[in-house]
Amino acid sequence: MKSTTKDVGALQVTTPSDREITMTRVFDAPRSMVFDAWTKPELLKRWLGVFGDWKFAVCEVDLKVGGKYRYVWRGADGKEMGMGGVYREIVRPERIVCTERFDEPWYGGGDAIDTTVFIEKDKKTTVTTTVLYASKQVRDSVLKSPMEGGVAKSYDALDEVLASMPAKNK
Amino acid sequence: MTPARLDATFAALADPTRRAILARLASGEASVAELAKPFAMSQPAISKHLKVLERAGLISRGRDAQRRPRRLEARPLAEATEWLERYRDHWEDNYQRLDALLEEMKTKQKTHPRRKR
Q1: Segment B73-112, tens digit of pLDDT
Q2: Which chain A residue lies closest to B25 (C-alpha atoms)?
Q3: Beta strand A55-61 with B59-61: parallel, antiparallel or unpaired?
């Protein structure tokens, strides 16, 4: 498990309900900056999903209510993964609500709703992203994918169990 | 690990009673009666949970024919953890790249200060 110094870092994953997954992470920067990094293509291209050989092939953001965003990543072997959605709410630099749908067939039907909230305190920004899936079924298919959403419903459940287990896999 | 196996593991873990059973078994094997005690549940109700855990491969039965003690099977749990770790690592990788980018942006802002908020 990676850990970071200070009180930044330490990604938290929780599951507030059957259809939701919430991720929380603290960044050592003012929220206007974090908001930019979250919404400007030239900045998004530097961090979101660009691991190993994967790079953005398409990164388009029309940041307005009703505007669309579209992300496509391409791996060295030419394999692609795409997703996109429509903005429903934008309160700069505090809050973004948008729909989310992956191209992959495993994703099943229905859009998910993404709510991202940026809270600044002492020049640090806490970002909380909650994904509300259309149904439990979609959530379950997300759970199967190693690429997206899988922040499994049972992550905290698992933590709970592991915490009580003899140290072996810790 | 197959998706079906992963599903079974997560489905089994989704219930608080079953998690408590696993936590109890983590400290040593126990009979059905012993497991039922702290939960204020009937033995058949506990047996139902045990069946789910057994099917998911999370527990097995001990040799003692009388007590038929259940014990924890660590492997599927370890596999599920590994899978989730990979997922979390994937996001943590994203966020660490963002950390680096934000540092860079802060440095730039210091060199070209702009009071814009």
Answers
A1: 888 777 766 666 666 677 788 899 999 999 999 998 888 7
A2: A165
A3: unpaired
Q: Quote the CA–CA distance of A154 and B4 in Å, as a whole number.
A: 15
Q: Nearest Cβ partner of A27 from B23, B83, B102?
A: B102
Interface of A with B in 113-142 (CB under 8 A): 140
Is A63's Cβ below 8 Å from some Cβ in B? no
- Is the CB of residue B36 less than 8 Å away from at least one CB of chain A? no
Closest CA to B81 of B26, B13, B31, B28: B13
The three-state secondary structure class of A91 is strand
ipTM for this prediction = 0.71
Q: Is residue B32 part of a domain?
A: yes
Q: Provide the residue count of chain A.
A: 170
Q: Establish if B110 touches chain A: CB-CB under 8 angstroms.
A: no
Structural domain of B16: 3-75
Number of domains in chain B: 1
pTM of the model: 0.62
Please judge whether B99 and A8 are an interchain contact, meaning their C-beta atoms are less than 8 angstroms apart: yes
Residue B104 lies in a domain: no
Beta strands in chain B (DSSP E): 59-61, 70-72
Of B72, B94, B116, the CB nearest to A47: B94
CATH number at residue B28: 1.10.10.10
Domains of chain A: 12-49+90-163 (3.30.530.20)
